[in-house]
Amino acid sequence: MSDKKRKSFSDINKKYSFLDEGVEGLKNRNVTRDEEARRRTMSENSEKNNRQGRNQQTHRNPRSNNNRQDFRDHTIKMDAQAIEKERRRVEMKARREREQKRKKRLTISVFLGIVIVVIVAFAFKTWLDKGNAKTNPIVATEPAEKKQNKETDVETLKGFVVTTKATKCFEDSNDSSTELKEILAGEYLEKYGTVDEFTKIKYQGTEGYVHTVDITEISKEDELKVIDGILIVNNKYTLPEEYEAGKNSEANTNFDIMVKAAKTDDVNIKVASDYRSYELQKNNSYDSEGISAYGEYLSDGSQVPAGASEHQTGLAFDVYGEYDNKYSKNFADSKEYKWLKENAHKYGFIIRYPEGKEEITGRKAEPWHLRYVGTKAAKEIHANNQTLEEYLGLVKNTGNEDENTNNELKENNNSNNDEKNNSSADNNSSNNNDSNSLDNNSNEENNNRSSNKKEDSDNSKNNENNN
């Protein structure tokens, strides 16, 4: 009887699943048997699938599966020492995490602080600059003025220098700039000014900068004389034998432009001679009779000494026309000369030795001789009908005076002559009076002498008669 009850109760429990489902089973009492059967079938299928999957994993990695089974099937027992060790591990891990977070926050704070300081400093500097610009506007314009002076100070030819040793020529005034060329010792350079420890020079058509300590000034004042940016060569200011300028690139370029412009006006200008070295001037310019091969003479007709010719500068050109009137005075009557006289100054050239200015230039007239001085100076010389000596104010230095001083000297000479004439007239009158008085005295003396002679003669006669 008791067995039946137990059996019946177990059947009832299995049927309604009071023990297995618990409260959920009570909630699902209203579920139909078909729904329950369907769910049971699905759960069985899922368990079957899970079982198959575990079996496959077991075949693939049996060791890991065994470890998992061991860990799942066995409970880990820890003593007090292991528990304390685990607690310390967890605590250290938490402490490291807190330290990392603190460092991260500190880094971000420092970065933000630096950014804020930079912004504040920049704003403060800007504010100070504005305040200084308002109170002292000259300070704001000084750098621009200095820069302008720096640029203008190296544009005009100041003179010539000589390299004391081999030096490098740079594109700009610093050693890190491009190296243009190396210049040997003893070379003459055109000097245009200094910038810090460098000097701007021009050498054989190349402009650049060299170290100032590698160059020295010309020792002789009457050699390579530069006035107002122009190299002057005449009987007083000469060129050294070692100076070999070669052809000047700027002068040649402007000469070619001038020749092309003349052709458009049906005028053909040809070059008879341009650059001539000191050696050529010394040995090949004159024959045994003193006749110049280049028509170059001093004002008295003598030879031009070596070093006193402008052709050694590379800035002079001897020209002739289409009728081969080379070094001929007839060139002054040619259309080429007339065109040059009216237009050469537009390209920076002047007729260096014009007729009628021999006493100023110290040379005989050379209508074929052109000298490059730049367009600014050439236009002023042409407008005022001057020579280069007159333009540079060297007339007095060469022993001549300009027209004003000549007029003053003439007036002074005239007044001096008048004074001399007046004094001479006075002297003549006084001299005449003195001479007249002297004549009278001499006449009286002569009369007295004659009377005395008569008395003596009468006395002598009387004495004879008495005897």
Average pLDDT rating: 77
CATH architecture label of the domain at 249-400: 2-Layer Sandwich
- Low-pLDDT residue spans: 138-152, 397-417, 419-443, 448-457, 459-467
Beta percentage is 5-15%
Radius of gyration: 60 Å
Spatial strand sequence of the major β-sheet: 6-5-4-1-7
Structural class: alpha+beta
**Count of DSSP helices?**
14
What is the CATH topology of the domain at 249-400?
A: Muramoyl-pentapeptide Carboxypeptidase, domain 2
Q: Tally of extended strands? A: 13
Protein name: D-alanyl-D-alanine carboxypeptidase family protein
Keywords: Carboxypeptidase, Hydrolase, Protease
Organism: Miniphocaeibacter halophilus
Task: Please describe the topology of this protein.
Elements: H1 2-16, H2 18-21, H3 23-27, H4 33-60, H5 62-73, H6 80-135, H7 137-152, E1 159-163, E2 167-170, E3 179-183, E4 188-195, E5 198-203, E6 206-211, E7 215-217, E8 225-227, E9 230-232, H8 249-264, E10 270-273, H9 278-283, E11 316-320, H10 335-343, E12 349-353, H11 358-361, E13 366-372, H12 375-384, H13 388-391, H14 403-466
Antiparallel strand pairs: 1-4, 1-7, 2-3, 4-5, 5-6, 8-9, 10-11, 11-13, 12-13
Helix pairs in contact: 4-5, 6-7
